[in-house]
Prior knowledge:
By secondary structure, this protein is of the alpha/beta class.
Amino acid sequence: MRTNSTLRLLAAAAMACAITVGATACGSSDPAADGGGGKKDVKSALEKGGKVTVWAWEPTLKKVAADFEKKYPQVDIEIVNAGTGDKQYTALQNAIAAGSGAPDVAQIEYYAVGQFAIGKSIEDLAPYGAADHDKSFTTGPWSAVKYDKAVYALPMDSGPMALFYNKKVFDKHGIAVPTTWDEYVEAARTLHKADPKIFIANDTGDAGATTSLIWQAGGRPYRTENTDVTIDFSDAGTKTYTDTWQKLLDEDLLSPVSSWSDEWYKGLADGSIATLAIGAWMPANFTSGVASASGDWRAAPLPQWAKGETASAENGGSSLAVPKAAKNKELAYAFTEYATTGDGATSRIAEGAFPATRADLESKAFLEAQFPYFGGQRANKIFADSARDVGTDWSYLPYQVYANSVFNDTVGKAYVSSTTLSQGLDAWQKSSVKYGTDQGFSVNK
């Protein structure tokens, strides 16, 4: 079990807050309380200039950095890939604990923001002007970084879910695009029976995909209020997900290929993996990684758990935060704001990022954009509808990074043994309860 001083709660932790989608009440941030002068002087920092080190793996930030340096010649932006996701978080926690080596800006996925916020290792950006963007971002991403009056990061992109399907494969076997998950299971059976080499999807166990589908099904397994945490994978929404997904596992209808592997890309290219239920940021990955299947794939709304519904969920997406150890926080915030709003956001969208900004998401140019890869389809209309239909009141654990790291040791067993998904989720719950209790949280009490 990994432990780290930044994760432990001291006596003052009772004042800390966890990030909850749609949450209210718990602490506040008073801009005037910081130096007594209201907003930080970001403008002066830009005029003075200096160096800003950004830890991020997202490729579109490279152009943003170049544009920012051109606009502000006194500023030097250094983009450093310190690892993807959990690898970077470990490096960041270690740098914070050591008291040196931390970046000025760090890319942090939404599920991980709470862990850094409650560890008091990232800045509340409200005093710098972040609160002014209350209406700038779509509900899901903004709620993931904001708690009451505190804003712990600015949304960089979002991942409203959609179903990507291989139209060539579907047409060949006379399969209609499934509108419900029950229809999806039937499509999986039909495809695999027609050609045993074809699977409706791949799945070897993924924490993000699992929680996203539970989210869409109405499950709300995590609840946090101050340091009181509830974890319950026995709710109706979770059961709806496990009842359906267990059929796919029991009947061997899912490809045992790991996502993002060479085999995965090959399966997407040759049609042996026929669908992906994933975030709207996926198209750029199709274009770059599955170029040979251009024209074969299309986007569709996510299948529903009950016919006639329009529920969706987020899958992926990340933000930019300013660590408390940053050397020039005003300048770091200036870059963070530029990269996530205005020209910076527009530039990143043009490079393939999916917007978290309302203005870009609702623009005619965005909605009418045609995707040559998807046969000229105006797929952004599907993604925009999904963004509006994301279920509210979703919460991540304030130590979700740890929880996700033990997913394969618990739920993952359902993919390689007789363990059921329900049993795996129960084991995940017990592991997460124990860890939270060990860190000083009051869990399931």
